[in-house]
Amino acid sequence: MKVNELDKNKVYFVTGAAGFIGFHLCKRLLDEGCTVIGLDNINDYYDVKLKKARLEIIKQYSAFKFVYADLQEKDKLVEVFKQYKIDIVINLAAQAGVRYSIKNPDAYIQSNIVGFLNILEVCRHNRIKHLVYASSSSVYGMNVTMPFSIHHNVDHPISLYAATKKSNELMAHTYSHLYSIPTTGLRFFTVYGPWGRPDMALFLFTEAILRGEPIKIFNNGKMERDFTYVDDIIEGIVRLLNNPPEENKEWDKELVDPGTSSAPYKVYNIGNSRPIELMNFIELLEERLGKKAEKYFLPMQDGDVSKTCADVDNLIKEIGFRPQTSINDGIDKFVSWYIDYYGQN
Fold this sequence. Notes:
Blueprint: E1 11-15, H1 20-31, E2 35-40, H2 48-58, E3 64-68, H3 74-83, E4 88-91, H4 98-103, H5 105-125, E5 130-136, H6 160-179, E6 183-188, E7 191-192, H7 201-211, E8 215-217, E9 224-225, E10 228-229, H8 230-241, E11 265-270, E12 276-277, H9 278-289, E13 295-297, H10 313-319, H11 327-342
Helix pairs in contact: 1-2, 1-8, 3-5, 5-6, 7-9, 9-11
């Protein structure tokens, strides 16, 4: 089992620092006494005020430096790496959202493909000790074997968003193979919690119920999701940061296991591994809010899947961690934050 302690002598570069997961990661690293360089373009995919409110919290730390830039601006990235002696890169910046990728595909190519290539290039030219990047459970696409395993083939994505995330894994592997850059891809499963994204189900449902508006329930409610609390996601990331992957000397070219490689490359699922039915999820939220939801049932959306569940065996084996936060506790913490932040009761 690997050592899970953070190296406080290293400089951590976090892209998407004003985003949901990026904010929580920056705050955790800063609370641990690390030096963090955060980058974000503060785009308007969702409420900019929420992003700026997150950013104001982490800007209060003296060990935090903020860079306003876009991953597509390669010259700015080069300048950042010249100015700061960055050791570890955590790329969380991306154009998120399955449905939005159907409406606005260009944004995903520019941010998730071009932007990620720029990250790989600056890592290559600056001898970065470890690149950790956000992938997604959406890469499993048409897979139906549960739980989803890193050893499963993921060649059948059903949204452009998923395809860009799978592309990130392929691009990272190429750079790990060609330039020996240690890269770790993290397939996140339905992350939720305080300061969450307004386009995600828990946020949308809470907002609508409190306003007395109907909530949209797709696939007529026959959905299961592996909801994963944000603190568990952050714990998984933190434990992996100073554990860069090594070449697998026993990798078999005949078997070609997708979960490992002859290059210093790894992917991990980070999920709760306990899927919950969507209707049960809504019931828990109604109970916490003390108010029933008006339900509007709809068919399955394009690009969506009916169930997700993470196999986290390699996470447990290699860093001794698995997400533990119950859905009850997670919903309670989110609602408490939402009411406090928006002043509703």
